[in-house]
Automatic annotation (TrEMBL):
Biased segments, Basic and acidic residues type: 61-70
Xref: Gene3D superfamilies: Triphosphoribosyl-dephospho-CoA protein
Pfam families hit by this protein: CitG
Disordered as annotated region, ranges: 58-77
One annotated GO molecular function: glycosyltransferase activity
Record's catalysed reaction(s): 3'-dephospho-CoA + ATP = 2'-(5''-triphospho-alpha-D-ribosyl)-3'-dephospho-CoA + adenine
Protein name: triphosphoribosyl-dephospho-CoA synthase
Lineage of source species: Bacteria, Bacillati, Actinomycetota, Actinomycetes, Kitasatosporales
UniProtKB keywords: ATP-binding, Glycosyltransferase, Nucleotide-binding, Transferase
InterPro entries, per database record: CitG
Entry keyword Glycosyltransferase: yes
Keyword ATP-binding recorded: yes
Amino acid sequence: MVVTREDEVMARAAVEGLLAGVELTPKPGLPDAREADLRGLRWSARALEPGLAAMAATARRTGEPGKGLRGELGAIGRSTERDMARADGGAGLHHGAVWPLGLLVAGAVLAPGGTVEEITGLAGRIAAYQDSRAPRVATPGSAVSVRYGAAGAKGEARAGFPHVRRATAALRTARDGGAGEADTRIGALLTVMATLQDTGLLHTAGPYGLREVQDGARDVAEGRLSLDDFDRRLRERGLRPRGSGHLLAAALFLDGRR
């Protein structure tokens, strides 16, 4: 596989979106500059770059969404997850981020200069194909998806990443209203948290934990709860809305291409 400079630039842009989300502080319930090992988070994120570049090269070579592209992206994604695990000693600091970022990198390659809607739509078309080489092993996310009827990461992707579209719209709206960049990004994160059916939260905290995150995000957005109090509540109860963090990173990636 030939990886071009263009592919590497695309991969770096996706990782920069992930890093921008990581470094955003304060973030309710999620690692940020106050408590996290940012050096370790950055090192782990950079471990995704070669895999994302390979995904970009694969999409460029294939030229259209299809079963073959879906299978190749899946294989590269699993290898990339293993590389990241080696980079961070198995801590799983960005576990799951390669799924949305990889699909959106492929969508961006297939639609050069495309809008957010065009890119997410293409990513959804790719995700709709079955990956025949994927291991047939139930995961915690797939189990709770079945149990609670939650869309999960696969459902989000197959629907064309509606929460990524909402987050990018929230970014534009906040900036147009004169908000500072940090507040703009926190607002986009809360937009995702308020409605995302995060299967990671469902697995660790059940439907009541998920509802607490969703209700709290809406309360902060509507001024009924302070961001600090919301953050304190999530940390005290061990509620980690990582799925929302990954989708914010995806939104920041697409937003950075405008």
